[in-house]
Design goal:
Double Stranded RNA Binding Domain, 2 helices, about 20% strand, globular
Length: about 90
């Protein structure tokens, strides 16, 4: 595993700065991790893993938009039956 640190300078402060990048155990995916937030992403190339990490860290910091009611419905999720809550209250994460 290698660790690289970039100087953010005038860049977006939500972009990862302290990053580890490694080839996954299977050897066909790259894994990128923002060491400051713990957010991890992957990609088939190093560049893709880093791009996906940028997007994931931006989402971690609140970037992005909430889905419309129609988007979850296309995945079989009823928005009216889906509410946010604590992981401790979730039967999925027991």
């Amino acid at each position: 595993m290698s660790i690289a640190t970039d100087d953010p300078g005038d860049e977006d402060p939500t972009l990862p700065v302290n990053i580890s990048l490694s080839l996954g155990e299977s050897g066909d995916m790259w894994v990128a991790r923002d060491e400051d937030t713990g957010v991890t992403s992957q990609g088939t190339t190093r560049e893709a893993a880093l791009k996906n990490l940028d997007e994931a860290v931006a989402g971690y910091h609140g970037a992005g938009e909430s889905p419309s009611d129609e988007e979850p419905r296309t995945m079989g999720i009823d928005p009216e039956q889906n509410t946010s809550g604590s992981l401790d209250e979730s039967h999925v994460f027991q």
